[in-house]
Write a structure and sequence with these properties.
Rossmann fold; 14 strands; Arc Repressor Mutant, subunit A; 17% strand; alpha/beta; 3 domains; five-stranded parallel β-sheet; globular; six-stranded mixed β-sheet
Length: 386
């Protein structure tokens, strides 16, 4: 099993909370991690028909087998579980007694909010970050962008395009049909592909709905499901006003760049290297790396972008030691003077509140240049991104 950066956080939470929850997208490695890390607890999958039927027919008898604790996989499948666990952990608050996993955040979070608030340590597991992928499997930047980070793509010899095709079909059939009751799955798949074409861009739901041939309210509901199942992330604009008119629309990013590439029909490094979306896809990789590191540490995202109506922009920013860290993202391998100037401009609106800006690029060089910290794509993820 690949070592996951979430493990220290799980260890910390298992010493503090009677229940630990692991959420995240399908196939991000939740079950493997839970079974390995909590190997002393009994494992039960609520997608097993016999176990699910037992739980439905005789809840108390079902749970009596797990008085000392258990890992309940796909816990959102049985909403009544959360109420029963509330009574059990209130009687015995032994830390790390129960572990819940779930792919649909909206189902899992609803049950936890209603019944287990204050009793559960919440974690979020995304696909593999760059530091979790074996060095010999990383390959070139374009190969990395094409493959993405789902663990299954690094555990065997399966072709990424074959696996991702199956993943999309399974996701659409299971999660989308169950939650939204979508009648025409082809329309939803078109919507999903249109979203991939907009990764790294400001979200315009009206335009997206019009191009997909659906209503604005339907597009909003579908986008909510993509967010809740960790397929996409909406990066909010920074909330402080520095005396300029600011863009207030979030930016859309896919959580896994390989999935975005597949949805765009990109199947080879040769096509990717000349594709007009390559820059946005590299930006998607970088933003997802920041998210993964923060979630692995058990922290909220607290990431933003900044753009005013004159076009001055910081691709990414976050607060650090009471000051602002600006990040400029460029996919080119060679750091040009224009790249450095763009990074320098990101600090102008914040003046003394800004730290030395970062420039993350598609090459491997790392150094400081004219007041800018330059980081290559293979090295930036090893930094503290919080």
């Amino acid at each position: 099993m690949l070592e996951r950066q979430l493990q220290p956080t799980l260890h910390r939470f298992a010493k503090s909370f009677p229940v630990v929850a692991i959420t995240g997208s399908r196939q991000s490695g939740k079950t493997t991690l839970a079974r390995s890390f909590f190997s002393d607890l009994r494992y039960v999958s609520l997608e097993d028909p016999s176990e699910f039927a037992f739980a439905q027919e005789d809840p108390k008898g079902f749970l009596a087998r797990f008085a000392k604790g258990a890992v309940f996989d796909e816990a959102q499948r049985w909403p009544a579980l959360f109420s029963y666990l509330q009574g059990m952990v209130d009687e015995d608050r032994t830390p790390g007694r129960f572990v819940l996993t779930g792919s649909q955040q909206f189902g899992l979070l609803a049950g936890i909010t209603q019944s287990l608030a204050g009793r559960v340590g919440m974690t979020r597991l995304l696909p593999l970050s760059l530091v979790e992928i074996p060095a010999e499997r990383v390959g070139s930047l374009d190969e990395m962008l094409l493959r993405g980070g789902y663990p299954a793509l690094y555990a065997g010899s399966v072709e990424s395009s074959d696996w991702l095709a199956s993943y999309v079909a399974t996701y659409v059939e299971r999660d989308v049909r169950q939650v939204l009751e979508v009648r025409d799955l082809m329309v939803f798949q078109r919507f999903l592909r249109l979203c991939a074409a907009r990764t790294g861009q400001l979200l315009n739901l009206n335009a997206l709905a019009g191009e997909a041939g659906i209503s604005h309210s339907t597009a909003r509901a579908w986008m909510s499901v993509l967010e809740s199942s960790d397929i996409v992330y909406l990066l909010p604009p920074y909330h402080r006003n520095f005396g300029k008119r600011l863009v207030k629309t979030p930016k859309l990013y896919f959580m896994d760049v390989g999935l975005a590439c597949w949805l765009l029909g990109i199947r080879s490094p040769e096509v990717l290297c000349v594709h007009p979306s390559r820059g946005a896809l590299f930006e998607t990789l970088v933003v997802s790396e920041f998210l993964k590191q923060r979630f692995n540490l058990g922290k909220p995202a607290d990431l933003y972008f900044w753009r005013d109506n004159s076009g001055l922009e910081a691709d990414l920013l976050f607060e650090r030691d009471g000051r602002l860290q600006m990040v400029e993202i460029k996919s080119g391998q060679t750091v040009t003077t224009d790249y450095v100037r763009a990074a320098q401009k990101t600090t102008r609106f914040a003046s003394e509140e800004a730290l030395m800006p970062w420039l993350i690029h598609g090459g491997e060089d790392a150094y400081e240049r004219n007041g800018v910290r330059v980081l290559g794509w293979t090295s930036f993820s090893k930094e503290s991104l919080c």
